[in-house]
Design brief:
Length: 336
C-alpha cells in the first residue's frame, strides 16, 4: 500500500505573515507524525510543487504542473493511489481539469485541502488528509475525486459552497461517492465517460465567463466580448434563458458564434440542467448554435472548455464535445 502526495499549496500548509496567510508550514514532518504507527506509516511520498501557491493564483499551467508530477511519479515508482493537496478556492476547477486529462490514468487521484491551516487546534487538515489517503487506498475510488468534510465527491461534479464550513464542498447534481463512517458508506461508481487518449497538455486559452443580470444591454454584452475570446461561457437564468425582449442581445451572441467562437450556456442556479429552447427566451441563441452545459458545474464546464481548446478543438466541434461525457462530468442517463 503506497500513496504519492502532490502538494500544491493552499491554506492547509499556510502560516501567518505580516501580509496574511502564506505557504510555510513543515507539511512533511506533520504528515510523518500524523501517519506514524498507522498502516500508512512510511508508505507515503510527497512532492511539493515550486512555487507553492494560494489556489486563487492557479491557472491551466498549474493544472499541467500537477499532471506532470503525477505522471512522472507514476512512471518512476507507481503508487497504489495519489493525493493532491490544494487550496480550496479553485480546488473544484483543478479536480475537474485533472479528470479530463487523466481519464487514461489507471490509479485513483483524490484532491483535498482544508479550511484551517494544519497548525491550528481544531483544524480540518488531519481528517481531510487521512480521509483522502483512505479513499486513495480504498480500491473503490476511481478516476479523480475530491475529499472534503467527510464526503468523497466526483472531482468533476464538485463545487465550493462555503468559505468557512468544514463541509465546504458539495456536488449539486450528483450524489456523493462515499461518506465516512465505520464503515464508509459507498454509493455508486462514477459514470464513465468516453475518455481521451493521449491528451495534449493544458495551455492557457482566452475563455470568458459572463454572468447575465436583469437589464443587461446588447451594447454592454458586445463590449464584454470585444476583442473576441476563444470561447464564451454565458451564465444565464434558470434552464438557460437569455432576455429575448432586449433588442439586439441574441444577435450579439449569434454574431460571436458566426465568427467561429463556441458559446456555452450555463445556468446561474446551484442545481440546474440547462435545456436551451425549453422557453422562447432561450430559443434564439439555441438556433444560432449556442449549446447548453447540461448539468455540469461551472468549474467542470470552464475546465472542459480549456481542455478542449488545448486539444485543438474550436467552434462547432468544441460545442459538440460539451454535450458528451469525457470523464463522468455530466449526467447522460436522463435521456433528454
Ligand atoms: N486561498 C486559499 C487557497 O485556495 C484558501 C484555502 O485553501 O482554503 O489556496
Amino acid at each position: 500500500m503506497s500513496v504519492h502526495i502532490t502538494y500544491t499549496g493552499g491554506t492547509i500548509g499556510m502560516v501567518d505573515s505580516p501580509r496574511g496567510l502564506v505557504p510555510g508550514a513543515d507539511l512533511e514532518s506533520w504528515l510523518a507524525d500524523l501517519l506514524d504507527g498507522t498502516d500508512l506509516g512510511g508508505q507515503v511520498t510527497l512532492t511539493g510543487l515550486d512555487p507553492l501557491i494560494d489556489s486563487s493564483n492557479a491557472a491551466p499551467g498549474s493544472w499541467q504542473q500537477i499532471i506532470k508530477d503525477l505522471r512522472t511519479h507514476h512512471a518512476d515508482r507507481p503508487a497504489q493511489g495519489y493525493v493532491v493537496l490544494h487550496g480550496t478556492d479553485t480546488m473544484a476547477y483543478t479536480s475537474a481539469a485533472l479528470s479530463y486529462a487523466l481519464a487514461d490514468f489507471d490509479r485513483p487521484v483524490v484532491v483535498t485541502g482544508s479550511q484551517l491551516p494544519l497548525g491550528v487546534v481544531g483544524s480540518d487538515a488531519a481528517p481531510n488528509v487521512t480521509g483522502a489517503l483512505r479513499a486513495a487506498t480504498s480500491r473503490r475510488a476511481v478516476g479523480v475525486s475530491l475529499f472534503f468534510g467527510h464526503h468523497l465527491l466526483a472531482g468533476n461534479r464538485a463545487t465550493k459552497t462555503s468559505s468557512w464550513a468544514f463541509q465546504g464542498f458539495t456536488s449539486p447534481n450528483a450524489v456523493p461517492l462515499a461518506v465516512t463512517g465505520a464503515p464508509w458508506q459507498w454509493t455508486r461508481p462514477s459514470e464513465a465517460g468516453t475518455g481521451w487518449p493521449h491528451p495534449k497538455p493544458y495551455e492557457r486559452h482566452d475563455v470568458v465567463v459572463i454572468d447575465l443580470a436583469p437589464g443587461i444591454t446588447a451594447a454592454r454584452l458586445r463590449a464584454l466580448l470585444t476583442p473576441l475570446p476563444e470561447a464564451v461561457v454565458l451564465r444565464a437564468f434558470g434552464v438557460g434563458n437569455v432576455p429575448s425582449a432586449e433588442p439586439g442581445l441574441a444577435d450579439v451572441i449569434a454574431e460571436v458564434i458566426g465568427a467561429g467562437v463556441a458559446v456555452i450556456v450555463a445556468s446561474q442556479c446551484y442545481e440546474a440542467e440547462v435545456l436551451l429552447g425549453h422557453y422562447e427566451a432561450g430559443d434564439a441563441i439555441a438556433r444560432a448554435g449556442a449549446v447548453g452545459s447540461r448539468d455540469m458545474t461551472l468549474e467542470a464546464t470552464y475546465a472542459k472548455v480549456q481542455f478542449l481548446l488545448s486539444q485543438g478543438l474550436r467552434g462547432d466541434e468544441l460545442s459538440q464535445w460539451m454535450g458528451r461525457s469525457i470523464a463522468g462530468e455530466l449526467t447522460t442517463s436522463r435521456g433528454r
